[in-house]
Amino acid sequence: MSSFTSLIGGYDISKLLGDSLRAGVNVQSAAFALGAVGLNLHYGFTGLLNVGMVAFMAAGSYGMAIIFTQGLFGGSILLGILGGLVFATIIALLVGIPALRLRSDYLAITTIAIGEVMRISFRSRRLLDITGGPFGLPSIEDRSADISLADRIGRDWNPFFSVDDPTKTFGFWRLDFDAKTLWLMIIGWTLVVLCSLLVWKLIQSPWGRVIKAIREDEDAARALGKNVFGYKLQSLIIGGCIGALAGIVRTLDSGFVESNQFKPQTTFFIWTVLILGGAASKWGPMLGAFVFWFVLVFVEEALRQVIINADDMVWMGLEANDVGRMRLIMMGIMLAALMIWRPQGILGKKEEALLDAR
Amino acid sequence: MPANSSESHASDARPTARNAAQMAVRTAQPEPGSVKPDAILTIDNVSRSFGGLKAVDVKRLEVQRGVITAFIGPNGAGKTTFFNLLTRFDDPDTGAWNFNGKPMQDQRSYAIAKAGMVRTFQLTKSLGKMSVMDNMMLGAKNQSGESLSRALLKGSWRKQERRVEAQATDLLGRFNLAHMRDEYAATLSGGQRKLLEMARALMSEPELILLDEPMAGVNPALVQSLLGHVQALRDDGVSVLFIEHDMDVIMGISDWIVVLAEGSVIAEGTPEQVSQNDVVVDAYLGTSFAGATGDGARSSEGDEGNQQ
């Protein structure tokens, strides 16, 4: 599709915009949006400081992968997903029952810890037969049935896949995707929309009124006869399961699990997505994920092109190797700017953000 | 606006003919721990220490049903701590109490509220980023839509929601907050928040309401209106227990007064009896008054203030 290509003085604008858009709508972006939807229920509506969303993602990913590779339910993906959600629920109970009775800071400490405990435990050589230890599960295969997760979701269950033309791509311009990616994008973004609507419907109900009251003042809710601990636990479980779906979507896409996919920074990216989009808003997590990935790739690509076009391929002391690190620094600066000039995020309500700043 | 509301409600504060419960409580002995003809709340040996300071140490207290009972006492007398213990927002070291004959000391705070014993706070807890109407509707008891399993089935709670909204609209009207129903609660003035908190507590249709200094920080005109509301509650059959340390404010509306000092009940009686009690006069005007206020900073109320 060369008609879209536009080179302006050595700068490839088409690639710059195309790659950024591509990143914004990709499966990875959908996974981050899902994580942010779960975190929105936790933090945006219930006021729970969950700093370990990655733990729920790991529970979903490993839960599904282990069930699949062990051939526990005849290699069923749906039962694998269900297993991942059950695992996430167990983690929520494990964290919530002791920590939700205490002040909110303790939940933050506990969640950040459980994420690391899980990551390091899964790396353990003692779990080599189950989690693959430090090697992870490089291809999620059901050994007894001789079928891999990637094949299941990418071929057998993929309406876009055709045996005659397995490399066929869909789309236009730089936004063309292979059959598996397209299928997973549809699954991923559909889940994002469904989970966003689920959370919104819950928040609009009397249940949601209690949840918001807990965010505003736990003691006030308690004084009106609401079982605050029970509500917080329910919120933690539901948000945690949505987080597990984020991990599951990411694993369906990558086709493998490995403990380094679940480092704490994933949690902070999800926080960035939520704050960027606007906490306590309906579509904030979804828009936040798109903008996050778009900007991240845009900054990287723009910087790369500037450096390539500069004399000696050095620009303000930066070389092509530095681009990967610079993009995170730029992201950080933009987030700081956002906090100063638009603390409510893109879709958040300004009045609510101001009411907080007393 | 506040001036208006006080005018319209000042008339509510006039003394009315005493009802049966008010007459009955006057027959009780004016001494600490006296037996009441029809007690809604009976309290035994409730104590709480903060380090070496015994903040609350109440041997025996009965609260009469259907009347306004006031807790008074100098700063640091343990009034708020006593409230916190009774509603289990704090854990007592010892003690037992029955509400409507049911033991409450082992219940959680939300269960005590559900049982019909609802409190408000000295520092108001309005839910700032929720509308005034949402604040009110939260107060209603037994809402089926509050259970997760029904939350998504709008049909199962739509009718109840309408009933709750009608009840809230009615109460907001009575408390002169109707025009604020769609505003964020954080935009209310201090006095309006006091009104909102009391109205919200009433949404749960309590049998006994515990008001922690409902008049503190409220302008004198609005105080008259609040007093009117408290009396109206009693006339509707609600038992009221409220904390105040300004004696003048409560003498007019209380049916029974319990005087606390240094954590213990030092006197009980009708307003007339208490105002002539030497022990009370000592506690307020004598040497112990100066001592008690000096201790205010490390008292239970001081602690509560610091937490918030």
Characterize the structure shown.
The complex is a heterodimer of chains A (358) and B (308). The model of chain A has no long low-confidence stretch (mean pLDDT 90). Chain A has a domain at 29-261. Chain A is globular, with a radius of gyration of 22 Å. By secondary structure, chain A is mainly alpha-helical. Chain A has 15 helices and six strands. In chain A, a hairpin with a 2-residue loop joins strand 1 (7-8) and strand 2 (11-12). Chain B has 308 residues and is α/β, with parallel strands linked by helices. Chain B is globular. Chain B has helices at 2-10, 20-25, 79-86, 109-114, 132-138, 148-151, 154-174, 190-203, 220-235, 247-251, 271-275, 278-285, 287-294, 300-307, and strands at residues 39-50, 53-64, 68-72, 94-99, 102-103, 117-119, 208-212, 239-243, 256-261, 264-269. In chain B, 48% of the residues are buried. In chain B, the strands form two sheets. In chain B, strands 6-7-8-3-9-10 form a six-stranded mixed sheet, with helices on both faces. A four-stranded antiparallel sheet of chain B has the order 2-1-4-5, with helices on one face. Chain B folds into two domains: 2-126 and 205-307, P-loop containing nucleotide triphosphate hydrolases (Rossmann fold, 3-Layer(aba) Sandwich), CATH 3.40.50; 128-187, no CATH class. Classes of the chains: A mainly alpha (358), B alpha/beta (308).
Class of secondary structure makeup of chain B: alpha/beta
Strand order of the largest sheet of chain A: 1-2
Largest sheet composition of chain A: 2 strands, antiparallel
Assign an overall shape of chain A.
globular
- Distance from N terminus to C terminus of chain A (CA atoms, Å) equals 54 Å
What name is given to the CATH topology of the largest domain in chain B? Rossmann fold
Order of helices and strands of chain B: HHEEEHEEHEHHHHEHEHEEHHHH
Helix count, DSSP H or I runs of 4 or more residues of chain A: 15
Helix content of chain B: 40-55%
Poorly predicted residue ranges of chain A: none
- What's the β-strand tally of chain B? 10
The number of helical segments of chain B is 14
User: Average pLDDT of chain B, to the nearest integer?
Assistant: 84
The N- and C-terminal alpha carbons of chain B lie at a distance of 29 Å
Largest sheet of chain B: 6 strands, mixed
Low-confidence stretches of chain B: 1-14, 287-308
